[in-house]
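Subject: Interface between my chains keeps coming out wrong

I've been trying for a while to get a sensible model of this assembly. When I model each chain on its own everything looks fine, but I need the whole thing in one frame so I can look at the contacts. Pasting all components below, labels as-is. Any help appreciated, I'm running out of ideas.
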Amino acid sequence: MIWHSVLFTLFAAIACGFAMAVVFTSNVVRMAFYLVISLSATSGLFFLAGADFVGAMQLMIYVGGTLVLLIFGVMLTAQQRFVQMRPSRSEVLLAGLLGAALLVLLASAAVGVPTWRGSGPKAAALDEPPLTATPIALGLLGFRVDGDPDDGQNRAGYLLPFEIISVHLLVVLVGAAYLARTRLTAGSLAQQPPGGFEQDAAEDRIAEVEAIAADSPGTEGPPT
Amino acid sequence: MILASLVTEPVGVAHYLIVGAVLFIAGIVCMATKRNLLGVLMGVELVLNGANVNFIAIGSPYLRGDAASVGLDGQLMALFVIVLAAAEAAVALAIALNFYNTVHTIDVDAADQLRG
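Reply #2:
Try treating it as a single job with all components included. I did that and got this:
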């Protein structure tokens, strides 16, 4: 019980603190690093709440996949010496005021519901540690094993949303690969600024093609 | 102050909701104040993460007890949010790369070509 509170306080402080650090730093590489720490601490909160499978997925997909994607984005769009783009002070002030007002609203809503107030980890849930991977997988396949059928708690499965999101992910990844591809045409290669190795390769290819084209009339007919 | 009483009482759903609210606000402010397009993307990630914290807290049998729990609905929704966030990050990063190749900067204020 006491460890639950201590670990919750630790993970919550890390998550919130580094989320604030993401806001307040202006170096985009440091922002990505702080975001990694914040998301990892959030997965620790998921483990504390009994969502072991979601916590593992958070670590694997968010921290392992999305952040790597973001860091590649930082590297691919790096400007000279990481120019710092700062907004004007009035914009920062306005955003801070609106954020503080919204935070007060959300916090008052969160503490205002009596059934959400803490009474510690429930004793019924502490008896057996709930392993959620198999029930979640069955739920995604359309079978729910977590509800109690005697109470009329038959719950709907998630097969259709699972299929929809699968196709959605496929379409999104194909679209992202299509959007981010490099457009290599003969015209764009010839107009590239000098210095890249693609330029040399393109010039070699063009020279090759021209040499073949120049040779071809002579080799068409048999030599007389 | 009602927030001060949260410190003394054991951890419940309200604590998780406060954490989710802080992550959400951090993401909103990040989206509003960053001029780097990737900074805006990181703000979106923070917002989705705050929503995930709320889903997990509401659906947790640890925090609400078995009677008031919503079963695994919260965790399934959180999984869907994670997958959607990954898809969103992929598409937004592709757009960011195209944007950078077009205007040769990553500053979102440079995207004013559609301004009338």
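Reply #3:
Confirming on my end. Residues 73-103 of chain B form the longest helix (31 residues).
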